[in-house]
Design a protein that fits this description.
mainly alpha, Helix Hairpins, minor pseudopilin epsh fold, 11% strand, globular, metal ion binding, iron, EC 1.15.1.1
Length: 198
């Protein structure tokens, strides 16, 4: 998916995922947190050689050069833009299409994958993301990535993600991250996951 240096429109109404994720959470998570990453990123690249670069190019360059503030804001903008599309009011149930076939192949069953992904998301200490990614050989794997980190920096193709920073769930679930992770499966967008496969 193409991600620009602007705050993207949500692919659904902010109340469409209620009660799994409420409009109030979107007001803060999307309207304040994500918007701040976009504003910070644009401020950091203003009048630099990266002005006009793609978000992916900024992530790559800032990561390789160890420019943590620039990397964090670029990666968090990319991650969030991707994450909103991993959710759908028409989502949930078991995966269909190629992603379902590959999950069965690489994890044994959807239930085994769901349990492993959920445990990864619940047990990730502090802030970060649980990712389903595809490696260079087309094999699916689950990655626990701290803070703003993304499979892009490891040469892997992001397929699906779940944000487990506290601001993703605290309004709706307080400190009950496991409940948030459990409810994610009711709105997961398998169509988007299929689109991301190599």
């Amino acid at each position: 998916m193409k991600i620009t240096l602007t705050l993207p429109e949500l692919p659904y109404d902010s109340g469409a995922l209620d009660p799994v994720i409420t409009a109030e959470t979107f007001d803060y998570h999307y309207g304040k947190h994500h918007a701040a990453y976009v504003n910070n990123l644009n401020g950091l690249i203003k009048d630099t050689a990266l002005e006009g670069a793609t978000v992916e190019a900024i992530i790559s360059k800032s990561f390789s050069e160890g420019n943590t503030p620039l990397f964090n804001n670029a990666a968090q903008h990319w991650n969030h833009s991707f994450f909103w599309n991993c959710l759908s009011p028409d989502g949930g149930a078991a995966p269909v299409g190629e992603v379902g076939t590959l999950i069965d192949r690489d994890f044994g069953s959807f239930e085994a994958f769901k349990d492993q992904f959920s445990q990864t998301a619940v047990k990730l200490f502090g802030a970060g993301w649980a990712w389903l990614a595809q490696d260079e050989n087309g094999v699916l794997e689950i990655l626990a990535m701290k803070d703003a980190h993304t499979p892009l920096t490891e040469g892997k193709k992001p397929i699906l993600t779940l944000d487990v920073w506290e601001h993703a769930y605290y309004i709706d679930y307080r400190n009950a991250r496991p409940k948030f992770v459990e409810n994610f499966w009711e709105v997961v967008n398998w169509d988007f996951a299929n689109e991301n496969l190599k």
